[in-house]
Design brief:
five-stranded parallel sheet; 2 domains; 15 strands; single chain; 31% strand
């Protein structure tokens, strides 16, 4: 069963939106909360099919935009990266930001037309959701065939002593293979060389220090060394889409 999470501080508008969601689809699970904290906890525990979020979730601060911040948080969660988000507001300058930066499904300006809202909710619930594309790769160690997703590779250390493929949750030890042949075999364009014996996944790069020659990885995964002769090529690869 699909589920809708409504985040709205005003109880009257919350009840109104609950009724509209029920009219759009009677066979749906609805959760309504008033704060971004409650919304975050629910989203992390469950699986939300559609977010309906008010931009302003508190009147204690005149510059509040906690609904926008919550939507931005959800876009950082892998399973919600493409989940439809409908933003609601009386603010005039929020529409472009909602579309451009948050990739929201649509924006509803208060007060809204009920028939239009029902139509939008139905369309959002029927919209196809794009999931993370997988890049299956296979490794053979002795007589065992090991399948992994190339997108989950954080970095690779390669030397004559052997090959170590570092994932977020495990390390895979393999026999040595020349770096060029390894990249050709993996065929994953986001793996780039940052040293003679080192390759890193661009999606896991947080930042880099060209003076001290190291790459800082996301999610507190540490740092890896950058080869001096690879700095310019590394920068070109980082900038290339």
């Amino acid at each position: 069963m699909k589920s809708v999470l409504i985040v709205e501080r005003n109880e009257v508008l919350m009840d109104q939106m609950i009724s509209l969601v029920k009219e759009a689809d009677v066979d749906i699970q609805i959760r309504a909360v008033r704060t971004d904290g409650e919304a975050y906890q629910y989203a992390m525990k469950g699986n939300v099919s559609l977010f309906i979020v008010d931009v302003v979730l508190t009147t204690r601060f005149s510059q509040d935009a906690s609904g926008i911040n919550f939507a931005a948080q959800m876009r950082m969660v892998e399973r919600y990266r493409h989940t439809p988000i409908i933003m609601m507001s009386m603010l005039e300058d929020i529409e472009m930001y909602a579309y451009k930066d948050l990739h929201c499904y649509t924006y509803l300006e208060k007060p809204f037309d009920k028939r239009h809202v029902i139509k939008v909710i139905r369309e959002a619930l029927d919209a196809p959701v794009s999931y993370k594309k997988k890049y299956p790769v296979y490794f053979r160690r002795e007589d065992v065939l090991i399948k992994r997703d190339a997108a989950d590779i954080v970095y690779i250390e390669n030397s004559k002593k052997g090959l170590t493929i570092h994932f977020k949750d495990e390390d895979l030890e393999m026999d040595y293979l020349p770096s060029g042949k390894l990249l050709d075999a993996l065929k994953y364009e986001k793996l780039i060389r940052c040293g003679r014996h080192m390759m890193v996944n661009k999606d896991y790069i947080d930042s880099f220090d060209l003076i001290n020659k190291y790459v800082i990885l996301k999610d507190d995964l540490g740092t890896i060394d950058m080869g001096k002769s690879y700095r310019q090529k590394f920068l070109r690869e980082i900038c290339r889409e």
